[in-house]
């Protein structure tokens, strides 16, 4: 299996629009990969800085991002080892990396370069730099600096211009000024103009009212139609025949309506992050199992079937964790259907 088979721009344009799910444990990775083999479509699996540290184990210090680096590398190697047996293309991605987390990014990129020397391809498929809180010129310049290292070894770069609201993985943008939740077309063009001089394999997470998490209907004002205006602006600047020169990313996809997703995809979104919804879906299966089997989970021996009856087959973690995997898979199938990412292989 080639982890990078979804990396080329042609793949995203002519085939699926991919949902992207966060990886915290190996069990979640198995569920996501199984789901993709079941629906016969590609997958993007990503790690966050906090999720990477969790994958490595909470006992490791992370003051210099060493746990996050170790966990991210371990997750990527695990995905490579297991996913190929499912016969499904997998893109291995890292999520938001703010300026203060650049040592984490540096550690992953070093691993990519070392893996490339040994195998002719990077360990990961792509990485995201989220310097949206920095001045625009600094944001773009830093992205260009890293992209010059990434492009020669075939790594895709995702960057963010404009801010995704809400809170995720320790980054709190709940109080951000509303105007910053909507990226301007001139800003997107500046990004495109700078990065396209280095290489074509990059995507832009442009803000159109996106918010991490799920909120009461009406509290989040998404305007995916703005992405069409960004495409038109870039097309005019480029002067080419391509109607959609931009590869766009939809952050905060959980809780979005089918119409919002459809509009985003129509206007050039090729990747949508879905995490909050899948976290809850994972919990649902475990929660329902525990509630339904409560009388079998209160002690090692003794249940409604008899005072001497053992309960190991109920409290074995493989049993109840699997129930969470099942409900997670069903939610991911919904995301794939909404994006048109079914039977694409």
What characteristics describe this protein?
345 residues; alpha/beta; zinc ion binding; eight-stranded parallel beta sheet; 12 helices; 15% strand; FBA_II; TIM Barrel; two-stranded antiparallel ribbon; fructose-bisphosphate aldolase activity
Protein model, in words:
The protein is α/β, with parallel strands linked by helices. It has a single domain, classed as TIM Barrel, CATH 3.20.20. The chain has helices at 9-14, 26-39, 49-56, 66-83, 102-119, 136-150, 185-195, 225-238, 258-266, 276-292, 312-315, 317-339, and strands spanning 18-22, 43-47, 90-94, 126-129, 156-161, 166-168, 171-173, 202-206, 248-250, 269-273, 301-303, 306-310. An eight-stranded parallel β-sheet has the order 8-5-4-3-2-1-10-9. The protein has a two-stranded antiparallel sheet with strand order 6-7. Strands 11-12 form a two-stranded antiparallel ribbon. The longest helix is centred in the last third of the chain and has 23 residues, at 317-339. It is globular and about 75 Å long. Its cofactor is Zn(2+). It catalyses: beta-D-fructose 1,6-bisphosphate = D-glyceraldehyde 3-phosphate + dihydroxyacetone phosphate. This is Fructose-bisphosphate aldolase. It is an enzyme of class 4 (lyase). GO terms for molecular function: fructose-bisphosphate aldolase activity; zinc ion binding.
